[in-house]
Amino acid sequence: MAKVTIDGIEVEVPNGASVLQACEAAGKEIPRFCYHERLSVAGNCRMCLVEVEKAPKPVASCAYPVADGMKVFTDSAMVRNARRNVMEFLLINHPLDCPICDQGGECDLQDQAVAFGRDGSRYREEKRAVKDKYLGPLVKTIMTRCIQCTRCVRFATEVAGVPELGATGRGENMQIGTYVEKALTTELSGNLIDICPVGALTSRPYAFVSRPWELRKTDSIDVLDAVGAAIRVDTRGPEVLRIIPRTNEDVNEEWMADRGRFSFDGLKRKRLDRPWIRREGKLQPATWPEALEHIAGKLKGMPGSRIGAVAGDLVDVESVYALKALMNALGSQNLECRQDGAKIDGSRRDHYLFNSGIAGIDEADALLIIGSNPRKEAPVLNARIRKRWNSGAMPVATIGEAGLDLTYTAEHLGEGTAVLDALLDGSHAFAKVLGEAKKPMIILGRGAVAREDGAAVLAAAWALANQIGALTPEWHGFNMLHLFGGQVGALDAGFLPGEGGQDLAGMLSGGVDALWLLGADGFEPAFISPGTFVIYQGHHGDRAASRADVILPGAAYTEKEGTYVNTEGRVQRGRLAVFPPGEAKEDWRIIRAAGVAMGVNLPFDTLEDVRAGMVAANPVFGLVDGRIAGGVQDVAGPAAGGTLSGTAFKANLTDYWLADPISRASETMAECSRIYNAAPVAQAAE
Questions:
Q1: Closest among 389, 366, 412, 403 to 158, alpha carbons compared
Q2: Mean pLDDT, 10 residues at a time, the chain of 686 residues
Q3: What angle do CA 470, 384, 345 make, to 5 degrees?
Q4: Rounded to an integer, what distance in angstroms lies between the CA atom of residue 237 and that of residue 215?
């Protein structure tokens, strides 16, 4: 540790830390444009100049290491004059776009020009102009505003792992771009907007829509993938205008996946805003009393064994708990939340969680990915894997599809389950790599267990984790990567077939006479037996709504207070940012009202009652913003339930951009799907 004096304040910082970090430790604000704590140091904006005792000139604090006994001055006359001159240089060619710039009001250049700049310029020459670059349908560029901090270049290369941005030219002719214009091929491109300190990179869907001071800001959780990234939902009136990430070091750091960020326009399209009843073969509008009475008339007197319910992938735990309570009151054990057919029994929580924790990736020293493409299934988590791989401390191998571009080098061991057998008997070379690691990690994709031999794959992956020493009292290296934010919460709530209950296949094939679909759009509705009475409760007129006999309009995740559990088992809360459209209501309230219509009084009247019941059923729901971490006390694995088939693993998420009902209603996501799914075809043709 080095002792450094900052403006008379003595602080102790690690050896190798920069002067800027020492200044921050002392509580001093240092302006910067190119420096970002999660990116490599560039040192090219010179805004962070400070005075160091005995140094002949100001030094760039972001790139200058501390030394024991160093004295630093952050607000001397030399420093103030140097920063004013640097700001004057930066503004020579910067256009006076503030009144029309989407960054206006939350712009680092604006803030620092006022705080650290001078009130005039000595330059009268004409400003240079730069041609705007095309970076795809999500990021808008106005490159004349660019101050060449190269944050975007370093993010694309180091974090996203897609080195497509760079600088061409020198001096005044230097420009940032892709050299050959094309859409950025990363699922994290929206983060370029956040890290750009000026208005050179802004959101294309948000362009000229609003100003930051007009927005109502609500903290929430992204449920469109299972990472559970912390987000802020910005609204004006009844409409969501923007979704941006919040910092959560244990989950998403400060990044966010593009689907969760840009699919918000799907929240106002294809919405269900009133109840519907199918009469004479056609869906017709109805009132709430009519819809609930129609359901009650169909279900009253029907044996509980002939009633089933399926929970969707984006559903909050409150709704799942309420529907389970209603089904149990009706005598039904036909419950299902595994729309993809995943062979997860739910008897032990660590059999289906990402047990190491997302932050635990930073500790792993060997990784095996089985039947998963984390770049598509969880882009933010994949960036964390890349960060760990980039440190050189973690070799990576995959079993599954060949030719995947994960943004990091991974040894492809094979496509099918035969490789699992070879690793288990120790005949494969990578078994030694895993066995010699101190904290090995296995990531099992949700798609790997959503197949006929899924139970055997799950048991084999657990057995391999135990064999390589990944299951110890100090380290839990077995991890399942789920796809959506509602999947783990439904498993924790026990929304699975009870004693004598039927699974999804049984219910679809005529095993029930009435089927309640709670946001369940993850399977083809044509598979539902023709004579089944279908109740669809959800927020979008997606796949299953077309098959419904009664439609009950629910609320999307931005329109209700809801509890979600991410892939690592972290219990999180989403907040109400806008009210549901039309006559749509919160899902647990709909279920309670349906129970009253059927003469079933469920044991809750308020949201607090529902949450108290959830905690009573499973205490883990009381651990809000936390997760149960630690090693393994019992290494007993899940029941095998068959043998490995030897077939190759296939991707479970076929189109990243259109993976859920909200995204499928989004015009922005539809455009992304057209552009990015056509790109591999065009490259193959060349």
A1: 389
A2: 92 93 94 95 93 93 93 94 94 92 94 92 90 94 94 96 93 89 93 95 95 96 96 96 96 95 95 94 94 94 93 96 96 94 91 95 95 95 96 93 93 93 90 94 95 93 94 95 96 94 92 94 91 95 92 96 96 96 96 94 94 96 92 88 87 91 96 85 41
A3: 50
A4: 9
CA atoms within 13 A on the CB side of 241: 18
For residue 124, CA distances in Å to 87, 88, 91, 93, 120 come to: 16, 12, 12, 10, 11
In the chain, the number of structural domains is 4
**442, β-bridge pairs:** 368, 478
Q: What CATH number did the domain enclosing 423 receive? A: 3.40.228.10
Contacts of 675 (CB under 8 A, 6+ apart): 136, 137, 183
Q: How far apart, in Å, are the Cα atoms of 246 and each of 176, 228, 250? A: 27, 11, 12
Question: Could you tell me if residue 20 is inside a domain?
Answer: yes
Of 70, 598, 138, 633, whose CA–CA distance to 329 is shortest? 598
CA dist 295 and 464 (Å) reads 49
Residue 83 located in a structural domain: yes
Residue 563's DSSP bridge partners are 573
β pairing state of 307-311 and 334-336: parallel
Number of H helices, E strands in the chain: 20, 26
Are 162 and 179 members of one domain? yes
How far is Cα 291 from Cα 536, in angstroms, rounded to an integer?
A: 11
SS (H, E, C) 480-537: EECCCCCHHHHHHCCCCCCCCCCCHHHHHHHHCCEEEEECCCCCCHHHCCCCCEEEEE
Q: What is the 3-state secondary structure (H, E, C) of 547-614?
A: HCCEEEECCCHHHCCEEEECCCCCEEEECCCCCCCCCCCCHHHHHHHHHHHCCCCCCCCCHHHHHHHH
> How would DSSP label each residue in 309-375?
EEE-TT--HHHHHHHHHHHHHTT--EEE--TT------SSGGGSSBTT-SGGGGT-SEEEEES--HH
Any bridge partners for residue 366, and if so which?
440
Q: What is the pLDDT of residues 123-178, one digit of tens each?
A: 889 999 999 999 999 999 999 999 999 999 999 999 999 999 999 998 888 999 99
Sorted by sequence, the CB contacts under 8 Å of residue 117 that are 6+ apart come out as 83, 84, 87, 88, 91
How many other C-beta atoms can be found within 10 angstroms of the C-beta atom of residue 320? 30
* Domain-embedded: residue 385: yes
Domain boundary among 433, 462, 481: 481
Distance from the Cα of residue 186 to its chain's centroid? 14
Strands 230-236 and 282-285: what pairing?
unpaired
Is the pTM value of this prediction over 0.85? Answer: yes
Rounded CA-CA distance 386/404 in Å is: 14
Residues forming beta bridges with residue 245, ordered by sequence position: 231
The CA angle 379-406-134, to the nearest 5 degrees, is 70
Confidence at residue 640, expressed as pLDDT on a 0 to 100 scale = 80
**CATH of residue 293:** 3.40.50.740
- Interval 508-550: pLDDT, tens: 998 999 999 999 998 999 999 998 999 999 999 988 999 999 9
How many Cα atoms within 13 Å fall on the side-chain side of residue 246?
13
Q: Which domain holds residue 172?
A: 121-208
List CB contacts of 556: < 8 A, sequence separation 6 or more: 267, 539, 540, 580, 662
Residue 583's φ and ψ, nearest 5 degrees, are -95, 10
Structure tokens at 476: 């839990």
End-to-end CA distance of the chain: 56
CA-to-CA separations, 46 to 90, 92, 175, 510, in angstroms, rounded: 10, 15, 19, 70
Contact 36, 25 (CB under 8 A): no
Give the amino acid at 233: V
